[in-house]
Design goal:
Layout lengths: L1 H17 L39 E9 L3 E11 L2 E10 L8 E2 L4 E9 L7 E7 L3 E5 L4 E4 L3 E12 L2 E11 L11 E9 L4 E8 L17 E9 L4 E8 L12 E11 L1
Antiparallel strand pairs: 1-2, 1-15, 2-3, 3-4, 3-5, 5-6, 6-9, 7-8, 9-10, 10-11, 11-12, 12-13, 13-14, 14-15
Length: 267
């Protein structure tokens, strides 16, 4: 069974890579060129990590809400064009009248882009991210949706019926709660442009590393997330995300709804 899971994950990533041949050289959309003016490439969708990195000597500040009246902030910096690093920290109950429930630790991310997208090949990157989604479960030592951990991501973009579209796929090994479920996992996602200001994001995390029944986790449905991004200026975008639409936890009575604000600037 594990062999089948690994084969499935490898097939997903290979499909994203081979799909690159469908694009024309003058139709490549690197998830940044057709944003308003000089907005940066999209480094994540909702949670799915892309192969894009921040430009050298730039930074991005990402802050978003999550259930349990929580707020999480991530600061990322482009060290080089191919290398992005960042720190993230959050708290549940921060937007309530009660005492905030701060996360136990600050999280870390690093990404290195191996290949840059061209006519034939997608962008390809590997890295590590301990940034999970939702509340921090102190009892089980994990986030509501596990962090990606170590990952390999591929991103390819092109026109489909004159609509700028990009696809992302990745395989990952999370470091969270490995004593319960230590399988590798995979995710796929897409972003497409409605107009110069509005983008639709959609992704599915197979959550193979989180499908063993354990307390409120392990429903085996995976995580389906959809978002709408409004690029207000080249530096500011506002986003509304609908997470966990398949209610992949026993304590989830409906999907999660979150607001996200992203600020980008050069140093």
């Amino acid at each position: 069974m594990k062999g089948f899971k690994i084969l499935l994950i490898f097939g997903i990533l290979t499909s994203v890579v081979l799909a690159g041949g469908l694009a024309n050289a003058d139709e490549i959309f690197d998830m940044g060129k057709d944003y308003k003016a000089e907005s940066p490439p999209r480094r994540i969708l909702v949670d799915a990590i892309t192969a894009n990195t921040l430009p050298r000597a730039s930074f991005a500040f990402d802050i978003h809400t999550f259930p349990n009246d929580g707020l999480q902030a991530t600061l990322s910096v482009g060290i080089l064009d191919r290398i992005t690093v960042g720190l993230s920290y959050g708290s549940a109950l921060l937007l309530s009248e009660t005492t905030p429930d701060w996360n136990d630790r600050m999280e870390f991310l690093v990404k290195y882009r191996i290949l840059t997208e061209d006519y034939t090949f997608p962008s390809l990157a590997f890295g590590y991210s301990s940034v999970g989604s939702g509340y921090w479960d102190e009892v089980n030592n994990r986030y509501a949706q596990k962090s990606k951990g170590f990952y390999l991501a591929a991103t390819k973009s092109y026109y489909i019926y004159n609509v700028l579209t990009a696809f992302t796929g990745g395989i990952n090994v999370s470091m969270e709660q490995r004593s319960v479920d230590n399988d590798p996992s995979a995710y796929v996602g897409t972003i497409f442009q409605i107009n110069r200001e509005v983008f639709i994001l959609a992704e599915y995390d197979f959550a193979i590393n989180d499908n063993k029944s354990y307390q409120q986790y392990g429903m085996g449905r995976g995580y389906l997330n959809i978002g709408v991004e409004w690029v207000i200026t080249p530096s500011i975008s506002l986003e509304f995300d609908m997470r966990n639409m398949l209610q992949n936890r026993r304590d989830a009575k409906t999907m999660d709804r979150e607001i996200r604000l992203i600020y980008f600037e050069y140093l």
